Amino acid sequence: MASVILGILLILVPLPLSAKAQNHGNLTLGSSLTANDQNSSWLSPSGEFAFGFRRMGRGAHLLAIWFEKIEDKTIVWSGNGDNLAPEGSKIHLTTDGRLVLADPNGGELWYPSPTVAGIAYAAMLDTGNFSYQPTDTILPTQRLVNGTKVNARYSEMNYSTGRFHFMLGVDGNLAFYASPNPWDASDIYWVSNTVGSDFGLIFNQSGQVYLTASNGTVLKLITSSTIPTSGDYQRAILEYDGVFRQYVYHKTANSSSGQAIGWSVVSSPVPPNICTSIAQNIGSGACGFNSYCSLGDDKRPRCLCPPGYTQLDSTNEMSGCKQDFVPQSCDGSRPETDQFTFQDILNTNWPLADYNRSTGQTEDGCREACLADCFCAVAIFGGGTCWKKKIPLSNGRMDSSEDGTKALIKVKIHDMTSKCTGKDQKNKNTTLMIIGSVLLSSSVFVNLLLLLITFLLYRSFRSRDSKLSRPVQINQVPGMRTFTHQELQEATNGFKEELGRGAFGVVYKGVLGSKDTNFMAVKVLVTWTGESEKEFEREVSAISQTNHKNLVQLLGFCNEGQHRLLVYEFMSNGTLADFLFGTSRPSWYKRIEIACGVAQGLSYLHDDCTRHIIHCDIKPQNILLDGSLAAKISDFGLAKLLMANQTRTTTGVRGTRGYLAPEWFRNMPISSKVDVYSFGILLVELICCRKNYEPEAEIEAQIVLVDWAYDCYHEGSILKLVESDEEASSDIKRVKRFVMTALWCMQEDPALRPTMKKITQMLEGAVEVPVPPVPSSFINSI
């Protein structure tokens, strides 16, 4: 990229205050930028980089530097991640030569450190060194010196300071730390082991990142890429997961070039496996407390919750996990050993979290020892040794290095057997007494006849009761509670507050436990038929095998007598349909998050579950929003579970008209691509904030939204779809990418539709979206 490296883009030039700007494009004293909807910025002469404000949500702006000529506008530096600027804030090159970010009332939000004073002008350059300390990213030709600290951000979209950082120490080492303010040596999870009191970290024009001594000697290669930076964009970043990665963006990449489209990793990450690199004496480890870290196929860490635990923060998988059950009592009079059992996870451990160790143990002996100890939450068994661990668990990892180690997770169990109430038993006894009296007072013929009728009725009732009261045949996950009907009746105050209703049931609001804020949603199946029974079993079976931040969590169920109820986490912001089609238009950036969240949830269902799941009914009414408006897929009553090696199945038409893929009506086997089609329609609705079918539309061409969206794309007038939406209009490149992605989703031929994993990459800008083929027609089953 012709040595384009622009740390701060602004080279602040100290000159006498009487000096004038010498070159075209220089920013004179008094120049300013205002934070507004237009993402205002100053460009470098070539336009490769921009400095200014990036909108991070409604009324919140980040002062940043980004690659301007690529679609996803990747940020490489930010100034006020810990203190976002409100609408109307200004970055100002003051008349006394200071660069200051101030809020609309003039209060200072940020200024460079160290402060640079006596500035005559700020030159917009395409080459040069960083003027200020970098945040999480370094660019080619940059050199970092002793004492420089680089902080990772909090999360992918949150630019506030995170827990990971690296520092070039005066002792000659480059060290990576697992906490913002390290407590001891255990916070270091990677170190360069270099020696020298004067050295630097260099990102050279050959695409290498390395440590060098003051005499120019290369001490250690940090990354080994040798891609020249002259023809491509490159960056190296300490990411929010604590891993240092180097990326390249090929300017000439396209679908036929054979090169990756978008940013791709070009060197081994540092460290190669952060899951096994961190073992803190004080702290949670690579992931949050009570979770464990597993390296995915893409070599990125995943933070997972053990059975019986869920994430503390559904929007941040690194936040840690909490128990979903009341832990074992330490009251000696109530040992509760019959109320708990164990779930096993192979090759998993929480090093440094043990408080007791015993050798010469069997696995059964290890279980019994943990069960008898109320403090024991997890036992680790391996090689005849049993380690007991208590809450909170730290340094969790799943790795092949733990081969033979088995984690025994203690979880609460619940009585699955259905019991008759006293009232039911009394009614049955009364009936039998009446029948007996009649038999004693009638003729022999009548008695025989009544006896036969009674036998047939009794067998019929027993058959029905047996069918209705049999336990649901599912592989129940630990932590899922079995409720009695009486418990749920009391929790919902007699099923008083209705949240919504569907074809087979009604959803009510309830309170879980004694806390008035611990809400839950109870779905009552009210039309008891063979199909509704299948729906109940499908929903429990499907969702009990899932664990993802974008899927609604099933807390438990009631399977008592004729009562079938499902208990879910309460989603305080209701359905996406209410949110999207209400009186006020939701933020464009929130709609982006929702679209990506639904895509990630579907990708998990299709590819990452133990048994792959086709949801079969993706629509706004089945997407719920939690307190932070994070999207969660719900209602698995029509879901289809596939066998391990199965990719398609045959079934009757399921789903909702208007969101159904064409193959439902063509007697074809269906696959996960039916969900892809439905998601495409949902995505267009998210883009335009309106329903797919609006017969009252004033313009006939706009009645069917997906047809109108394709017409606008084909005519090159995408802006028409969002012309009344200022936020979306100012982000038109992303709007176009989303529309193109939706058109791919809605291809009539299922084979042409991408997988949800690929769609997620398209939405996030990780891969280029090719031009969608022209469909012969859009099939709309309205």
From TrEMBL:
InterPro entries: Bulb-type_lectin_dom, Bulb-type_lectin_dom_sf, G-type_lectin_kinases/EP1-like, Kinase-like_dom_sf, Prot_kinase_dom, Protein_kinase_ATP_BS, Ser/Thr_kinase_AS, SRK-like_kinase. Keywords: ATP-binding, Disulfide bond, EGF-like domain, Glycoprotein, Kinase, Lectin, Membrane, Nucleotide-binding, Receptor, Serine/threonine-protein kinase, Signal, Transferase, Transmembrane, Transmembrane helix. GO terms for molecular function: ATP binding; carbohydrate binding; protein serine/threonine kinase activity. Pfam families: Pkinase. This is non-specific serine/threonine protein kinase. It comes from the Eukaryota. It is found in: Membrane. Residues 493-779 form the Protein kinase domain. GO terms for cellular component: membrane. Its main location: membrane. The chain crosses the membrane at residues 432-458. Its EC number is 2.7.11.1. Residues 1-21 form the signal peptide. It is a single-pass type I membrane protein. The keyword Ion transport does not apply. It catalyses: L-threonyl-[protein] + ATP = O-phospho-L-threonyl-[protein] + ADP + H(+); L-seryl-[protein] + ATP = O-phospho-L-seryl-[protein] + ADP + H(+). ATP binds at residue 523.
